[in-house]
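Follow-up to my post from last week.
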Amino acid sequence: MKRKKIVAGNWKMNGTYDDACKLTSEIVAMAKDELNGNTVVILAPPFPFIPTVNKLTEQTNIKISAQNCSSENSGAFTGEVSAAMIASCGAAYVIIGHSERRTIFKEQDDLLLKKVQMALANNLSVIFCIGETKEQREQAIHFKVAEEQLNNSIFKLSADEFSKCIIAYEPVWAIGTGLTATPAQAQEMHHYIRGCIAKSFTPQVAEQCSLLYGGSCNESNAAELFALEDIDGGLIGGASLKSRSFVNIIKSMKD
Ligand code: PEP
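User reply:
Got it. Predicted complex:
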């Protein structure tokens, strides 16, 4: 079985309700021909817009993701949003471990693992983000950092649970900075991650796992990155807020 090709747009905390409707409608209209192909297109709007974005995309193959979820099931956790709530609004995925959650909100590996388990228990697939900082790359410990992030979190899942996870390698120094990993740097890290999966699970599990690149991926560099052997798509931030750019990124994916 071929690995799933995926292009996911992470809208972060941007836009109003009207902006979300406009962006979704434009993407649906422009990408009509692409959306029934082999690429899975995922939109990750802010929580309040999930039901509407889901409704606007219901005639398409577009899937919806949340950008985070609570590690708790329900109860007195003011401001939190549970995996069950997200699933009940029509989302199929949730992003967990984004570097902004790790750095700004101090989310650590053990909490992230709890969130992943909660997501899976509610039938959400997980886009799990890992990646090194600029300092860690300069110290040449980027492989070790990525492996530890995986060992301390989703490598503790069973192989069956892990098969519902997608990994996004997002070098922190490339997120929102306009700096992109070179194709060689990206391929090298994706290949390394696939090797870590094979070591922790089996080569077959590793072969099936979709690995996305994130970090200033845009319509100019997507085709080159997506053509690499171990890169199965992208997690797109800034460029996913412009319908034309995002659709061009989807079009960069070759089967
Ligand atoms: C992201 O935050 O997941 C991301 C990849 O952002 P950007 O594309 O803006 O670097």
